[in-house]
Specification:
This protein has about 650 residues and is α/β, with parallel strands linked by helices. The protein is built from 19 helices and 27 strands. The strands form five sheets. It has an eight-stranded antiparallel sheet, covered by helices on one side. The chain has a seven-stranded antiparallel sheet with strand order 7-8-9-10-14-15-16, with helices on one face. Strands 19-18-20-21-22 form a five-stranded parallel sheet, sandwiched between helices. It starts with a strand and ends in an 18-residue tail after the last helix.
Amino acid sequence: MCGIFGYVSSNRKQVTGNPLRSRSEASKKLKNAAQIVFEGLKRLEYRGYDSWGIAVKVDSPHFAKASRGKQSGKSELKVEKHVGAISELKHHSSLTRPELIESETLRVERRSRRITPASLLALGHTRWATHGGVTEVNAHPHLDCNGEIAVVHNGIVENFQTIKEELVKKGHKFVSQTDTEVIGHLIEENLKKSKFVDSFRFAFKRLTGLNAVLAMYADSGELIAAKTGSPLVIGVGNEENFVASDTTGIIKHTKRVVFLDDGQMVILEKDLKLIDIYDGKVIRPEIITLKWKFEDVEKGNFSHFFLKEIYEQPHVLRNIANSNGQIQKMASLVENAFGTFFVACGSASYAALAGTYLFSRLAKKHVNFAIGSEFNYLEDYIGKGSLVIPISQSGESVDVIQPVIRAKEKGAKVAAIVNVLGSTLYRLADHKLLLASGPEKAVVATKSLTAMVAVLILITYCLIKKQKEGRLLLLRAAEDVKSVLEERYASKIKKVAKKLKNKEHVFIIGRGLSYATALEATLKLKEASYIHAEGFAGGELKHGVIALIEKGTPCIVFAPNDETYDEIISNAAEIKARGGYIIGIGPKNNEIFDDFLETGDLSEATMISQIVVAQMLAYYIAIEKGINPDMPRNLAKSVTVK
């Protein structure tokens, strides 16, 4: 759930020349590993965190000693930690201030007329607290007793108490409440008998649970990473290498990446060395070239990533409409499967729910569905011939990955719908359909969700041999979404947002496909604006929910122009009769509605436009309440712990 970032440069060439003439030029050429890591962590902020820290290896006494023990060798680790967001820092990090680099440059120039890099090796971390409170002491990186080993970690070391008890008996001193700290001390203990690479490997093998670990050793200058469950990606540069929790962190520096598989560790040197953790054998790395651009992970002229990604949806829909091979392949797999099963979490689960309606209504196909965390209680009927379709933005959610692994063990085929090339889910799947909606940095899903719905619509149209009609429908949806995003329309949404900003509760109803729409809209309001929202099928009103309706209670009604229209209007009338405030979203206005936000009449794709309206509404409520919609409290982009 947190962000890991590491950097190592193998370019140790020194710049020489007249110190007075070359000072500015030389300063620009210096590689400051801490600054690179600091900026990498900022690009990983969207993953969610409550504290952060950086450790850097320096070879100069200009920097203060960071260890808690004796000094050894010429290299030192300097660590800086903070509670809160990186953007909340009131001053520059002492590790990354340009004036420190400049003063170090001058100091070295005056001494030897040579310029040495400020740093060549650093790692950092954005932490989401699990073990121990949100404090600077508990923030990563964590050090060993001598301050020579720095460790950052995602996941949970399930057996950390046993390991800690053993290490305390051997004299190790712990300062934090975290499970992570045991890793550095365990490596330190192993160093008494082995070199750093083997010490790291033996330590990692002791850990139980789903973990990703990055560690560096000041004495040797080595940077090593390993994983079992939690994601890690390696960026391959020119005489420099990077490691991060995902590609968003490193795409500024390189598009050449290696995705670590479970049970693998990598030594980041001039050339990557990939090793099997369990048998120690060297593995040939598979280098993949990313197609994303750095501009895709920048906000540009938008105030928030959330808003930028909302506005990218027409482009995403057009791309999907013009795609071909993988959509048709997925349709063929469904056609020939002996039982098809969707598994997904969060917003993706509502796309999957919509898929069950689409497959039933159009293709006359029955599809089973379960959210990821419940799938293992329903998987007994999975077997050879079954087709499991996991749907995920990140491809790293553990609640989806674990059911997929079990389904494969039972003989099922896995056909993943995922947005991230090289993600764990992507690599696990027998067949993959990339959403290709581009990187999504806001925690709240927007373009990835509409891409999922669009893909499912197109698969369904392929099943009924109407691919052309499906593509044209998505192109119409793209144009309708574009009109929803125009300022004249956005101003209407802003007015409704002002009315809702102080409301404690909002009810959202729909029927059929719009039931899935209602659930997704509910999640958007919860995540972005912290309003308690409850979404449900319109027919469930009379089964208890209507007891909560009183004068002024807001209710959003999704009313597409389909077979559900008359019944959902009747449900809205029941709420209106009890004093409810009704907001209608759909192609047709109705006297029942107190406010109406119009969308195009787009058959099954009407839900796409309706979802975009809900996204905009959630965004503007968040802005009205002074909430950062990119990083809602307590949430992370991908959930990689149980």
